[in-house]
Amino acid sequence: MGNSGSAVKVCTDHQGGINWLSLSPDGQRLLTGSEDGTARLWSTADSQCHGHFQGHESYITFCHLENEAAFTCSADHTIRKWDVLTGQCLAIYRGHTSIVNRILVAKDYLFSGSYDRTARCWSVDKEKQIQEFRGHRNCVLTLAHYSSRDVLEEEEEEERVSRDLLVTGSTDCTVKVWWVSSGRCYQTLLGHTGAVLCLILDAPNRELFSGSTDYTIRTWNIVTGEQLKVFKEHQGSVICLELVNRHLYSGSADRTVKCWLVDTGERIQTYKAHKHSVSTLKYHAGILFTGSGDACARAFNSKSGVLQKIFRGHKFIINCIQIHNELLYTASHDGTLRIWDIRGICKRNKRRFKKERSVQGRSSQKGSLSRLFNNKVGCMVQQENGE
């Protein structure tokens, strides 16, 4: 049974629920976007608020942090770009006609998805819309981006100039893949019977994973559009996905997380203990961290499924988690950002892994039959620990 942990710091500056938490690529800053219509910038060095971004006319739905710029999108139909040093609003992107619920920054592009049934592409450095992706019959909930260089062997002649593609998931039960240059739909992926809530892309292996309110996860070949596998064991909507070393972790409204072997479709672990939907998850150093509608975060041994710790203190759903320098950051609809020390869990997990490897090393000397028997387990341990 996991033991309870206390936060090392509770940040209460926001006046409304926190909808998203983003970590900068260099790990120096965190950005929170809130129901109070503001975003706040936090230093991971001292856990202090070093920026307060004001200007949106309604609540912030999502945020994204780069090293020098921050991006927020809002129910006021706009996206804003901010200078992280001065807090100045550098650009306002206007064009959507309803709530903007998701943004994605890739290269010099800013992508957005909205309840107005469209996705859009903007120039990061200008307030100019480059492309509109129109074709979904309902709101666009989630986005992914990749380059055709990563996946296509032969490209269509007309698409040679720009090789970027955008993937959108919608409440119309479809996933669409679009050419960024033309706005043309390259593939429509059909199979889900419920809203597509989450996407995760594995471009090197040409695979896309989608989670839905139809209780399934589906794997697609993003070149051919072929549906490869359907993962069916969840008993509730699939809310969040994480892909680590060919292991797929899925969090669901059925109060569980499941781990699947991508290559075979086999479900190898179920993580139980949540008392409400699993709203967010993050893998770190062999540990699976989860946030739930029961206001708790949890840490599980990713291999054994054993609950190692419960982080109690939030009052409402945990919407997002981040991990940096063995600190766990949890952002909740209760308006607080809480910071937890996870060094003890990480150390225990490392010791356990070393012990398991030592045992496997001795067992491997017992003969070819033993090697065959232990090979699958050994590979799983190595993959989950990033070797």
TrEMBL record:
* Keywords assigned by UniProt, alphabetized: Repeat, WD repeat
Per the record, the coiled-coil ranges are none
Show me the WD repeat boundaries. Answer: 11-43, 93-132, 165-188, 189-230, 231-270, 311-343
InterPro entries the record matches? WD40/YVTN_repeat-like_dom_sf, WD40_PAC1, WD40_repeat_CS, WD40_repeat_dom_sf, WD40_rpt, WDR86-like
What transmembrane ranges does the database entry give? none
Q: Which Pfam families match?
A: WD40 (PF00400)
State the name under which the record lists this protein: WDR86 protein
Q: Which organism is it from?
A: Scytalopus superciliaris
The gene designation is Wdr86
